[in-house]
Structure formats: structure tokens, C-alpha cells
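Translate sequence into C-alpha cells.
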Amino acid sequence: MKTIIVDDERLAREELKMLLSEYSEIEIIGEYKNTIEAKDAIEKHSPDLVFMDIQMPGETGLELLGKISNPPRTIFVTAYDEYAIKAFELNAYDYLMKPIDPERLQEVYNRLSEENKTPASVENSDVLGTGDKVLIKDGDKVWFIKVDDIRYFESEGNYVKVHFEKFRPLILRSLNSLESRTDGKLFFRANRKYIINLNHVVNVESWFNGGLQVELSCGTKIEISRRQTIKFKDQFSL
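Result follows.
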């Protein structure tokens, strides 16, 4: 897993690097002392994982995560517990307190490893497109459905909610990993929280700040972020 570390304190970065050196699957490709450097690195290198402090000179780690349309799995490492709720609202992968408890770090690593080994509750390693069927499991319930019937995916913290028919099962999987599994001709990443099925779009209208809003066949309205609106127009305009 390509990983970057973002923290304005050199000793904090060194401590984290030492702890992460125990895990051979984690490859640290860069370390940065502020969010400006980190944002450039994320856009250039597309890391799989980011360990990031919150309180840093200038922009905070929370503000950076809020700006990125398709963020990597982000684990906040901070001495302050009062930002946890906001972090998870922004779909942070986890929240570690300083000084880092090695057992908590091990828990995070175990979860990452499990997700990487197993495609969670979507049982197929191929790209999912029109005509394909997919197995979805949520607890004891199992569905085997057409991919075309999925109206949209919605990020819920460390899970994704799959919307089809009257059902809303949760699967332990990141929205980023699902995006890589879905055919771009059928599914589109609207923003950090939603991936929509283009065949279920029934209306498109201009929205705030240069974005778009789409209405799906179920009546749900979802905003396409400004950055993704540019991509949407490039991909589908005549």
C-alpha cells in the first residue's frame, strides 16, 4: 500500500515511520509537513493510504480532506479527540490518538489487510458492467442481482450502502475500491460520497458553484461536485 505521512512535527513523523516499518505491505513514498505539500503529493502519486495530523500551520488536515474529491483512505493521527466526529463525517478511515498505541495501529492494519485480501461483500474480481450479476452480503442476508439494478452507492464511514429496489445493504468496502471495480460507462463518481448509475439518471440541472445536480429514477437527487462536473461534461458532451 503506497502511503504518505503528513505532520508538521518531524519527531512525530519519525515515530510513525518506525511503527509502520513493522508492516511490509505498507510502502512510505513520502512525508510532508503541511497540507499544501500533501495535496500536491496526493494528486501526483495517488497513494492508497494517508496518515495525517489535524492541527498544522495553515490549513488543517480536516480542511484538506474536505477539498479532495476522491480521497485515499485517510487515517488521522492527532493529540485531540474533539475532531473525531467531524473526521468520520468526512469519511476518514480511522482516527488514532497520539501517542500512537501499537495495538490500535495493528487493528487498523488488520482491517486494511482484510479489505485488500477479500473483495468484501462483492464477490467478483472483474470490472462490473452492464449485464453482469453480483453477489452482495450483509450479515445473514444475501442478494444476487444485476449490476444494472443498482441505482447508486453511498459511502457510510468505513462501509458502502448499496441502493437497489427497496434494499440498502451495507458492505465493508471503500467507495474508492468500488469505483475501481465499476465500469466507467455505467457508473460515475458524483462526489466523495456517491457513485451513481448513469442509466438511472432521469434529469440533470445546473447547481451551485458551477456543479450539477442529477435526479435518479428513484427520485433521489445527488449533487455532482464542481471538479467531477468538469469530468462529466468532458465525458458526455457532444
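Note: The chain is about 30% helix and 30% strand.
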